[in-house]
TrEMBL record:
It comes from Rhodoferax potami. It holds the Pfam family gag-asp_proteas. Residues 1-19 form the signal peptide. Keywords: Signal. InterPro entries: Aspartic_peptidase_AS, Clan_AA_Asp_peptidase_C, Peptidase_aspartic_dom_sf, Retropepsin-like_bacterial. This is Retropepsin-like aspartic protease. SUPFAM superfamilies: Acid proteases.
Length: 214
């Protein structure tokens, strides 16, 4: 039991293989408000470092950051960018360990067709659910998909069904994942059973472990 507990603890502490995500929430004088790995905004002064991300320069709403010797230019309000040294590495894992966040929800940064998104696990959703605004941002051609009618709290609304080439969570990548795109605004991409169904799910208190089925 102790060995298993230590193994799970190590998984939780292990950095994501595909790198950190960084977004700029705003600027104030010589400080930038950094959001690293989906956390709370942190005010970081010019030349200072937060969670391995250094603020190199600032001009208007553009901030240059440096991670592991690599520089990247980010703009206020842009989607989170993948800046870690592992960015672009192939996903080869078979297990994802998630920790519950505020409200008991399981959330994590991930990728759809190589573009970074923020997921929230939703075991009640049949498919991965994406707002039209988010689908536009990551370049999905959902208008070419099948038109569907979706039941919402505000009645029946039109939507689209399509198949995503690739969905990645941590070091696990899944191909051919069904998704629905809705005109309704959503703060997250709902990670539904078209993805979760590929895994054996086990939840213990505030941890969810996804083991890939074979």
């Amino acid at each position: 039991m102790r060995t298993a507990a230590r193994f799970l603890f190590a998984l939780l502490l292990a950095p994501a293989v595909w790198g950190q995500t960084v977004a700029i929430n705003g600027t104030l004088g010589d400080k930038a408000l950094l959001i690293v790995d989906g956390g709370f905004p942190k005010s970081v002064a010019l030349g200072a470092t937060h969670m391995g991300v250094k603020v190199v320069s600032m001009q208007g709403d553009t901030v240059v950051v440096e991670v592991a010797g690599k520089k990247m230019s980010l703009r206020v309000g842009d989607a989170p960018a993948n800046v870690g040294t592992g960015a672009g590495q192939p996903a080869s894992g078979n297990r994802v360990v998630l920790a519950a966040g505020p409200g008991g929800h399981f959330m994590s940064d991930g990728q759809i067709n190589g573009r970074i998104v923020r997921f929230m696990v939703d075991t009640g959703a049949t498919a991965v659910s994406i707002s039209a605004a988010e689908a536009d941002r990551i370049g999905l051609k959902y208008q070419n998909g099948d038109r569907v009618q979706m039941n919402t709290a505000n009645g029946v609304v039109p939507g689209w069904r399509m198949t995503l080439n690739n969905v990645r969570l941590g070091d696990v990548s899944v191909s051919g994942v069904d998704a629905v795109i809705t005109p309704a605004s959503m703060p997250y991409v709902l990670l539904g059973n078209s993805f979760l169904g590929r895994f054996q799910m086990n939840r213990t208190n505030d941890q969810m472990i996804l083991d890939r089925r074979f």
